[in-house]
Structure formats: structure tokens, C-alpha cells
Backbone:
């Protein structure tokens, strides 16, 4: 079999443990904060125009709006104590903040042949307004995914998967960015101070 010295074996085991810890950390960087919701009632504007957004890049079509409208509701419910999905900002009702998304850009790597990996990156511009309609935060969030892309027979399924993964990452990162906003945190603190 293998003739290894004990010191070489110990080094290999130590290296394997360190690398597995690094990989686990890299995967969890876009996870949501642990079960702590921001104490804010938010209205997420997902209008028909946004939900039908199709972006074209290099002769390829990415149906991002449809997937975003499916994923964002559940993704944002994890970040706020109250979330209402509306079609227009005036329909926000008693929401403390109104979240207005706009898909800005998409980039995608080309595959180097059948059964290679591909990366998709989405850029979302967020505008957040308070009850009075005043803009309190503007930011751009980037979500990405890397996925195996098959051949011509599995292209459509693989494309749907990578779009879903990228939108999920975008939703998670958006909640984290919104949670870190001092202006939104100020509103959360004010609502927590009220009896």
C-alpha cells in the first residue's frame, strides 16, 4: 500500500482540516443574519414591469424578473418583521419603508464546451423611501452563482438553475445590505422605542 511517515500523514490531515474550514466559510458568506429580523414594516414593490424583466447579453436571454418575483418575497420575509408585496409605492399602506428594486445589469461567462462551469452575476439597484416618500438609501447589490452547464439538451434547465441561484444570492445579499444601512437601522430603533 502506501508508505508514509507519521509526520507526513499528520500534515496531510491538518491540511485537509484547514482547507475544509476555509471552504465552509466561503460558502456561508452570503447567509442571512441569524434569525434576527430588522424591526421594520417594509413594502416591497414588485410591479408587472419588474416581474417581466428580461435581460439580453451576447445573444442570450436571461428571464430574471420572473424568478426575482418568486424568490424575493420569501427571501425578504426573513429580514423584516413585516413585509408587504405591492405593485406600486402608493399602495404601501402603513409600511415604514418602501423597497424599490431595479435590475441594472447581468454578466455571464461563456462555457468552454459541454459540461463546464459557468458564472452568472446580477446587479440590482435599490432605492429605499420612508413613509413620506423621501429617499433614505440608494445602493447597488451584486448577486452571483456558479453552476455546471451541460450540453444543448440540458441548456434551458441549467440556465434556469443558475438564474435561480444568482437571484437567491442577490436576495440574501440585499437583505444583508439593507440591514446594515444606518438610515434603515435608525427607523428600526425608533419603532422599537415606541410602546
Residues:
Amino acid at each position: 500500500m502506501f508508505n508514509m511517515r507519521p509526520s507526513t500523514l499528520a500534515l496531510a490531515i491538518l491540511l485537509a482540516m484547514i482547507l475544509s474550514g476555509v471552504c465552509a466559510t466561503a460558502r456561508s458568506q452570503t447567509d442571512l443574519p441569524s434569525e434576527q429580523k430588522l424591526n421594520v414594516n417594509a413594502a416591497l414593490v414588485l410591479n408587472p414591469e419588474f416581474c417581466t424583466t428580461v435581460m439580453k447579453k451576447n445573444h442570450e436571454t436571461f428571464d430574471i424578473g420572473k424568478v426575482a418575483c418568486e424568490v424575493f418575497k420569501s427571501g425578504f420575509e426573513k429580514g423584516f418583521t413585516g413585509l408587504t408585496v405591492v405593485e406600486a409605492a402608493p399602495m404601501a399602506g402603513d409600511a415604514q419603508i418602501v423597497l424599490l428594486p431595479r435590475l441594472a445589469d447581468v454578466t455571464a461567462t461563456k462555457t468552454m464546451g459541454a459540461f463546464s462551469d459557468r458564472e452568472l452575476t446580477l446587479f440590482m439597484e435599490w432605492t429605499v423611501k420612508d413613509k413620506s416618500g423621501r429617499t433614505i438609501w440608494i445602493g447597488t447589490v451584486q448577486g452571483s452563482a456558479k453552476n455546471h452547464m451541460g450540453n444543448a439538451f440540458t441548456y434551458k434547465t441549467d440556465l434556469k438553475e443558475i438564474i435561480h441561484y444568482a437571484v437567491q444570492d442577490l436576495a440574501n445579499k440585499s437583505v444583508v445590505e439593507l440591514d446594515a444601512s444606518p438610515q434603515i437601522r435608525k427607523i428600526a430603533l425608533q419603532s422599537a422605542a415606541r410602546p
